[in-house]
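Query structure, 209 tokens:
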């Protein structure tokens, strides 16, 4: 990242699988909620998307402190519009999606304001915000992640797309859609656990008393 835009472009490749999901989804005019997990150099993928003409709003952890504030400043210096999650940033996200634009956020960090979802067969309190945004605006959900592609090289890949419309009439459509999003990522997390950089305990039984 210290090498700037060209350094990122030299180390980060956007796979056709990701472009093939993003481009038609954005062309539809419905807006896109791109969801990801904290795998490998996910930060590089966010910044490279911006550099390659996919400007979007990145919703980051609420109430950033210390190194999180610095991380957001680095993102802004690379041109990424990043805003911590709060009422104003969520209103902005809704407006952007209704304008057919891109909003990016993660789905694997524990969230006290989330709901119990299943990951690897165990319950964890995880975000449902992306599902709520998609259902409220009709935006398409695109799942993407970053994985190692050899020493000092990384690849951003697309792993799936979900249309929120089939979840609109369900009794608990938000939770069901959030669960469907997680199920797209689970095979990749299982296949590459050494690249999953989640430093917060997800499952209650893993949290020290």
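Result returned for the query:
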């Amino acid at each position: 990242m210290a090498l700037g835009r060209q350094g990122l472009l030299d180390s980060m490749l956007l796979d056709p699988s990701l472009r093939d999901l993003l481009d038609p989804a954005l062309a539809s005019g419905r807006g896109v909620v791109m969801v990801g997990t904290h795998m490998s150099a996910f930060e590089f993928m966010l910044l490279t998307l911006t550099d390659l003409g996919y400007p979007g709003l990145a919703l980051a952890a609420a109430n950033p402190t210390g190194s999180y504030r610095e991380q957001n400043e680095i993102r802004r210096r690379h041109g990424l519009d990043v805003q911590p999650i709060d009422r104003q940033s969520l209103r902005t996200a809704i407006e952007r999606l209704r304008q057919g634009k891109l909003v990016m956020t993660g789905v694997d960090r524990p969230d006290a304001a989330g709901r119990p979802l299943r990951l690897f067969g165990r319950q964890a309190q995880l975000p449902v915000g992306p599902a709520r945004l998609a259902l409220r605006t009709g935006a398409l959900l695109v799942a993407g992640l970053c994985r190692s592609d050899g020493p000092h090289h990384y690849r951003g890949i697309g792993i799936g797309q979900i249309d929120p419309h089939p979840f609109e009439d369900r009794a608990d459509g938000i939770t069901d859609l959030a669960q469907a999003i997680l199920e797209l990522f689970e095979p990749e997390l299982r296949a590459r656990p050494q690249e999953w950089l989640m430093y917060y305990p997800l499952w209650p039984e893993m949290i020290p008393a």
